[in-house]
Amino acid sequence: MIKIAIFASGSGSNFQSIVEATRRGSLHAEVGLLVCDKRNALVIERAEREGIPVLVFDPKEYETKSAYEEVILKTLNECNVEFIVLAGYMRLLGSVLLNAFQGRIVNIHPSLLPAFPGKDAIGQAFQAGVKVTGVTVHYVDEGMDTGPIIAQSAVRVLNDDDRDRLQARIQETEHTLYPTVLQDLFESLKITNY
Ligand code: GAR
């Protein structure tokens, strides 16, 4: 079974949905590590409850991105991690991780990219008055929410929506889309490796 690390900075609802999919057996993967850049993030509690090892680091304690990414890479290698899943990790990846995990890093973003990249994509879509937004899963490169798109799912903005209601439906979509896309990806990786 493929061993993955999830990178997250926040509440970790996507982390939770991925872990639950592995437990149900609909996602054939083992979550071997959580990497988190915020000491008080809720996702850390979720990982501890699930018995998943956690690497927490404070980027401010390092002089460069490469310096903390070397620490992360060492732990990923020690844990035999084969694939990186970003789930609300609000930080750009640098060359250390991008080179070590080429083609094996994906991200989820709460908009139909290339629309509304960056922070608060849901608020951006709401403010823009679009009638359809959604969720994108894509490979990660050095840009902000750029990289080849793997899958997208549309979410309608309803006339009586407020930002929170829209967010709830987008997150619901994320929680089904991400585990499904990951399972498809891991199956195709298995085929390529034989
Ligand atoms: C998710 O909506 C994810 O798509 C978004 O952060 C949220 C994390 O929620 N990611 C980005 O905006 C990436 N640019 P969670 O911590 O509850 O999974």
Structure characterization notes:
- The chain is an alpha/beta fold.
- It has one domain: Formyl transferase, N-terminal domain (Rossmann fold, 3-Layer(aba) Sandwich), CATH 3.40.50.
- The protein has helices at residues 13-24, 42-50, 65-78, 95-100, 121-128, 163-193; strands at residues 2-8, 29-36, 54-56, 83-86, 105-109, 132-139, 149-156.
- Strand 1 (2-8), helix 1 (13-24) and strand 2 (29-36) form a beta-alpha-beta unit.
- 35% of the residues are buried.
- The model has no long low-confidence stretch (mean pLDDT 96).
- The structure holds glycinamide ribonucleotide (GAR).
Descriptive tags:
single chain, 194 residues, 6 helices, 7 strands, 41% helix, globular, binds glycinamide ribonucleotide
What's the topology here?
Blueprint: E1 2-8, H1 13-24, E2 29-36, H2 42-50, E3 54-56, H3 65-78, E4 83-86, H4 95-100, E5 105-109, H5 121-128, E6 132-139, E7 149-156, H6 163-193
Parallel strand pairs: 1-2, 1-4, 2-3, 4-5
Antiparallel strand pairs: 5-6, 6-7
Bound molecules: glycinamide ribonucleotide (GAR).
**Element order, helices and strands?**
EHEHEHEHEHEEH
CATH homologous superfamily classification: Formyl transferase, N-terminal domain
Please mark out the parts with pLDDT under 50 across 5 or more consecutive residues, or reply none: none
Radius of gyration: 16 Å
| C-alpha end-to-end distance | 14 Å
Overall tally of structural domains: 1
Q: Identify the CATH class.
A: Alpha Beta
The tally of helices reads 6
Largest sheet: 7 strands, mixed
Mean pLDDT across the residues is 96
Helix proportion range: 40-55%
Small molecules (ligands, ions, cofactors) in the structure: glycinamide ribonucleotide
What share of residues are in beta strands?
Answer: 15-25%
* Class inferred from helices and paired strands: alpha/beta
Describe the global form.
Answer: globular
Topology, number of strands: 7
**CATH architecture classification name:** 3-Layer(aba) Sandwich
Major sheet: arrangement of strands: 3-2-1-4-5-6-7
CATH topology: Rossmann fold
